[in-house]
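Quick one:
INPUT:
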């Protein structure tokens, strides 16, 4: 059916489509008359409905109410572009269209430019000079033209254009530069004529327009006290589902017991974005913020004053593995940048930015920045329970209340009378150490539902597309532009909230049923007494977090260090009892096996480094490798001589291996030297059983250590890849980040080889 394959149905008709579009380039019917009866009219409007031709007088009369339409003139060969200004049309403000003013005031130099969706237009404009006339910029505003300046304006943009660009910037993230120059190409796409440059004026009008629209939507035009009575964060679009006393909470909610009050808890998520940089261009004096703390960004002067006051405070070092990735080298470099990114505070349940929860970061993700943003955002809420999600919450929450005491008193919250819990987002949690995974997990905590804490991440995909244009803006324009985009993000979230909640309710019903069935099936395989015991332990821990965490493993991990300590203590007891069988004064049987395993690790590292050398190494690189080769060979030779005391058979094995070798090279290769540990001996070879037992215990611990290292490196590598994709741009920064990732990959591979050696020893 043609309706099923419309493109295939169109192909046979494309010649007709081409012919019809070419027909529009001509006059059409040659015998056409003007509407006034004049023969052979010469003018046609590209923007009016229809393709009728008009005479000079009629085209002017028809466009008294459409002075920005584009006119084509027939020159007896083809249509050429002209303008209503060239045809003599004058636009009169302050009066009904078509009505003349008795005291017109011509615009400066009779040269006025209007930017519209059809292009950049030059018009002949007269302001009203009557006694009751309004000031010039008001006359433009009442015509729905936005003036570029308030004093003697010479440029304006139509409201339709500003509305069009406003929505385009939200949906396509088009920059003002791209948009303006696309309009200029509509005037002339061949570059054969100059286009009036009003880009700077257009940028200024867009900045003001965004601000005015935010004021309108917040109802600031109806306040008798005017715009200056606007309070901090008042222009922000609030999350309607967050707890707002007096709006969406029942009376007496604060007096409810904790078993009920958890429903009125506030969930916030904290994160930083290092894509939203700003170059060190312009200044606050030249490009001030019009919002000035009324939206999502905090008020800049107070924020900078606090940061300056805390500049000498040293941040505690992280004790968690994941933060090696957070503090990657490129974020520490702020050369040429006024801001390395932004920190934000979001509603963790509904993915919306919070008022006064956004601020610039000057050099990385410092606690002093994030503290200020969090407490600024919390000023808008009066709640008794707060759940805070942050990818470094395990470190950031330490000394938080101590740091709060050093902040301005207006930012203090009564935390002693509140329940504040800290979490790490689910996706980031796996990159943390085991202790953090137990203590900061949403999954192990009561009254948080299926919150994942990753709300900011979902917002970055939307806002990151404006990073290229906002990076070049002045400080005020950038903050106000981001404020506007955050407001649009919140608005779209609100309009979709009904559909979103309906879908989530449906999913919750479905998964509750499936998970319930899976749980009941599992419980049927477990003794009821064990289930009751586990349930009691979990409920006790949920009631009192000082109780033992039931999710903490009670299995004591076996590590190489622990096994080495046990063997050393055993030898000490044997020595004290006089039963020690050491054959060397300095090297005991345990020390022999331990040193042999360490030598294998060194052999593997040397082998990898030799393989990774470039084709043309420098003399310094050659010297470093040769020094390591010589040093390792000496240690192996010394160890082998002592080994022959404990395992005499290895001397014969080495001799046979040497005779069987066909290589006569004198080059040292300690990385390929076979150590003949007990696990490498033939079953028929004689070896002290104690040595084999020691190696087995050490190999078991080595395998477990290696597996833990592999898991840790995989988590860290995953975290670093995500960080790199989100925040790192540019060749230099990407190269540094990739070098760090490659280093983690090498350490991971070394752990893999260590595990394989341990496994091979087991099998041997």
């Amino acid at each position: 059916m043609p309706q099923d394959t419309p493109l295939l149905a169109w192909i046979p008709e494309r010649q007709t489509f081409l012919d019809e579009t070419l027909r529009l380039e001509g006059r059409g019917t040659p015998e056409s008359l003007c509407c006034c009866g004049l023969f052979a009219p010469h003018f046609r409007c590209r923007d009016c409905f229809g393709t009728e031709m008009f005479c000079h007088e009629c085209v002017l009369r028809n466009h008294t109410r459409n002075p920005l339409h584009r006119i084509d003139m027939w020159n007896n060969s083809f249509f050429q572009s002209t303008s209503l200004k060239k045809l003599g049309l004058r636009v009169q403000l302050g009066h009904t269209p078509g009505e003349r003013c008795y005291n017109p005031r011509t615009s400066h130099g009779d040269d006025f430019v209007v930017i519209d969706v059809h292009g950049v237009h030059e018009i002949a404009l007269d302001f009203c000079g009557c006694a009751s006339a309004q000031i010039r910029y008001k006359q433009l505003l009442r015509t729905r033209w936005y003036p570029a300046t308030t004093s003697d304006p010479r440029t304006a943009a139509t409201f339709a254009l500003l509305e069009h660009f406003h929505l385009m910037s939200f949906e396509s993230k088009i920059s003002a530069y791209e948009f303006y120059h696309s309009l200029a190409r509509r005037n002339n796409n061949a570059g054969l004529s100059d286009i009036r440059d009003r880009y700077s004026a257009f940028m200024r009008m867009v900045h003001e327009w965004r601000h005015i629209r935010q004021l309108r939507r917040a109802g600031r035009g109806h306040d008798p006290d005017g715009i200056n009575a606007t309070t901090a964060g008042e222009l922000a679009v609030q999350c309607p589902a967050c707890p707002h006393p007096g709006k969406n909470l029942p009376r007496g909610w604060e007096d409810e017991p904790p078993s009920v009050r958890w429903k009125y808890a506030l969930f916030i998520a904290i994160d930083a974005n290092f894509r939203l940089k700003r170059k060190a261009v312009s200044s606050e004096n030249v490009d001030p913020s019009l919002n000035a703390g009324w939206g999502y960004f905090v008020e800049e002067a107070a924020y900078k004053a606090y940061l300056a006051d805390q500049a000498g405070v040293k941040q505690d070092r992280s004790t968690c593995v994941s933060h090696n990735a957070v503090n990657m080298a490129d974020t520490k470099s702020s050369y040429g940048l006024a801001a390395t990114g932004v920190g934000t505070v979001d509603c963790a349940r509904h993915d919306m930015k919070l008022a006064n929860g956004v601020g610039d970061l000057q050099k990385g993700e410092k606690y002093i920045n994030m503290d200020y943003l969090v407490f600024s955002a919390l000023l808008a809420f009066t709640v008794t329970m707060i759940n805070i999600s942050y990818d470094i919450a395990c470190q950031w929450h330490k000394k938080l209340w101590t740091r709060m005491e050093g902040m301005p008193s207006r930012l203090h919250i009564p935390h002693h009378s509140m329940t504040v819990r800290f979490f790490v987002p689910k996706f980031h949690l796996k990159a943390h150490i085991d202790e953090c995974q137990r203590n900061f997990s949403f999954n192990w905590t009561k009254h948080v539902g299926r919150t994942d804490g990753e709300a900011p991440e979902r917002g970055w995909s939307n806002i990151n597309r404006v990073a290229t244009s906002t990076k070049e803006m002045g400080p005020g324009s950038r903050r106000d532009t981001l404020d506007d985009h955050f407001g649009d993000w919140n608005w779209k979230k609100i309009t979709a909230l009904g559909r979103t909640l309906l879908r989530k309710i449906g999913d919750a019903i479905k998964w509750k049923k499936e998970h319930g069935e899976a749980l009941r099936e599992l419980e049927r395989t477990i003794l009821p007494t064990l289930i009751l015991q586990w349930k009691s332990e979990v409920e006790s821990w949920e009631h009192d977090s000082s109780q033992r965490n039931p999710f903490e493993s009670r299995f004591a991990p076996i590590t190489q260090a622990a096994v080495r300590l046990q063997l050393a203590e055993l030898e000490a007891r044997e020595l004290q009892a006089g039963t020690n069988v050491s054959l060397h004064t300095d090297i005991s049987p345990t020390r022999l096996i331990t040193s042999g395993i360490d030598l294998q690790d060194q052999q593997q590292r040397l082998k990898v480094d030799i393989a990774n050398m470039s084709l043309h190494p420098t003399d310094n690189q050659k010297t470093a490798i040769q020094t390591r080769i010589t040093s390792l060979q000496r240690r192996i030779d010394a160890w082998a001589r002592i080994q022959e005391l404990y395992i005499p058979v290895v001397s014969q094995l080495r001799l046979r291996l040497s005779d069987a070798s066909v290589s006569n090279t004198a080059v040292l290769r300690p990385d390929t030297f076979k150590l003949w540990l007990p696990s490498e001996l033939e079953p028929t070879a004689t070896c002290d059983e104690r040595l084999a037992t020691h190696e087995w215990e050490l190999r078991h611990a080595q395998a477990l250590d290696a597996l833990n290292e592999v898991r840790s490196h995989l988590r860290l590598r995953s975290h670093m890849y995500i960080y790199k994709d989100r925040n790192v741009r540019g060749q230099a920064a990407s190269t540094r980040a990739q070098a760090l990732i490659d280093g983690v990959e090498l350490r991971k591979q070394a752990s893999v080889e260590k595990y394989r050696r341990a496994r091979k020893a087991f099998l041997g």
